Amino acid sequence: DKTSMFPLIQRCCFHTSFKLQKLTGPRLLLCGKNTTTWSFFGLWLQRAVCPLSRSPSLKPASVYATQLQAFHTSLPILKKKTPPESETESQKRKESLKDSPKPALYLSLAGLVPFVSMPLVMAIQGTYYPEVAFAQVTYGAATVSFLGGMRWGFALPENSPAKPDWLNLANSTILPLLAWQALLFQDTTQSAVMLVIALGIALHYDIALLPDYPRWFKILRVWGTVVMVLSLLATLFLKFLDHWRSEHRDKGQK
What we know:
The chain is mainly α and 254 residues long. It has 11 helices and no strands. It has a domain at 104-252. Keywords: Membrane, Transmembrane, Transmembrane helix.
């Protein structure tokens, strides 16, 4: 019967060509002079069986071909394609302090003048004034309270990404409480340290917890916090320096 003989011939031809593929390599090199003969004979059989190997029923041949191909080529699925960056995101990343609105920039710089001028005046005079240091602490407490109120106001509008929940509103009230505690200390050193902690918490709120702020505002907040913290630390340094000088004077008089 022809219908029963054709699958038998197809299987025999397929197994013969598959074995000849395995023989190409070191086994044929061991044959010496018969290498060209065997390679020619194997090439002839492969050409003869080529139409049969294209049948859809011969699945092992396709699997074997893909396994061989995997050693030489990398699958395109494994290559991660970075999504194209939108124009708005690229513009936000390119924003700098110069792109901030003029009123916000100038008012923020003007708000830093009392912080910088007070320790600068004491450094020029060469004397530590407790009244000036207390004035700086008072102004710092007012600034910290303003930053807490700004966070409260950011959460109130309906279209704001920050919801007026317990977390956002309670975090905004922490800053005025820290500012009030700083004013209750009798020692200026403790008051300045408390204000430094409060300024760090306020910066963490604006940078990490509220990412929807504009980039220019975040840069402005970072630079403003750095200037305020350095001015408070400068006042503490002048206080310790004045205390050290007074101790040496007392030892010299004795």
